[in-house]
Amino acid sequence: MREGAGPFEPAEALEAGLALDTQSEDLQGRLQASLASAQAGLGAQESARKEASEHVSRAEACVSSKDYAGAIMAYEAAVALDVNDASLTSSYQSGVETSRGAMSDAVGTARGKLEEGETAVAAQDWESAIACFTAGVSIEGTHDDDLSSSLRAGLESAESSKAARDAARGGRAGLLPAHGRVGARARGG
Length: 189
Fold this sequence. Notes:
Blueprint lengths: L9 H10 L5 H40 L3 H13 L5 H37 L3 H13 L6 H27 L18
Helix pairs in contact: 1-2, 2-3, 3-4, 4-5, 4-6, 5-6
């Protein structure tokens, strides 16, 4: 039996056997029962493969939109079907693992941006903090609501702190030279 052909390939042989002029009704009955079983199994296999293919198409669409959780669910649904083909099942499982890896990478990158942003906040480097939090928020595919909330909260806090700093500097703006260089007049420039 060829790989991927499944146990239902003998249906063709059974059909050929039924075409023979047999004298035994018992043999004829057993051949017909075996043929019916093989045809039903073949139909189920073809149906499972079609359904698995639909799950894979959905998974691929999810991956392209960075919906890794959706891709994992769709690939796992394909794996759960008995398509009677080790190569197909292996490719579906590979899709699950690839999607998990991509989601893990997205979460790791977003967490890194959160940590960088928090470090910048501690140093009161609001521009860097805002850039880090914004970069973290823009990462797609994390499917981690707590992480996304932390990034948005950090961004809002950094923006508020920057605005407060800028407002405080604005109150002193009249003390700065028109061209913005502190001490330029004192140096004769």
